[in-house]
Write a structure and sequence with these properties.
By secondary structure, the protein is mainly α. It contains five helices and no strands. It has helices spanning 8-31, 38-42, 44-95, 98-107, 123-131. The termini are far apart.
Length: 132
């Protein structure tokens, strides 16, 4: 029954074959010889398509990042413009308050009218505007 037993030499030889196959596969990848295999050559179009999709994915990431940066810059600019608008509007309202306007008009010897402003409407003027 010794014929069925595996000798140590046979076990070592089997382990060496496995290591050689792994090393040879690694060497094929490092050398670039795996590119000449039939499997790679037959599926080259599909592999190139996958690389194209990968490239598009990376490009989309960079584009999205630039859009986010642009939105943030625009938001900061909008906030600055809004604060400038509020500041200018406040200054305008402060300078055009009624009591300050009356004081300025007194220097020019103008008096504030106590009568309300009346609008005179003419049919002749309205008809001219409608013709134009």
């Amino acid at each position: 029954m010794k014929a069925n037993e595996v000798t140590e030499d046979e076990q070592e030889a089997a382990v060496k074959k496995v290591k050689e196959r792994k090393q040879s596969a690694l060497m094929l990848v490092l050398n670039g010889d795996f590119l000449t295999r039939d499997f790679v050559l037959n599926n080259l179009a599909y592999i190139l398509f996958l690389f194209l999709l990968l490239f598009v994915l990376v490009a989309k990431g960079y584009y999205g990042k630039s859009l986010v940066k642009n939105v943030q810059e625009t938001r900061i600019e909008l906030d600055q413009n809004t604060s400038d608008y509020i500041e200018t509007k406040t200054l305008f309202e402060e300078r055009t308050r009624r009591y300050k306007m009356v004081e300025r008009l007194k220097e020019k010897e103008l008096i504030e009218s106590e009568n309300a402003i009346q609008v005179i409407k003419s049919n002749q003027i309205n008809s001219k505007h409608e013709e134009q």
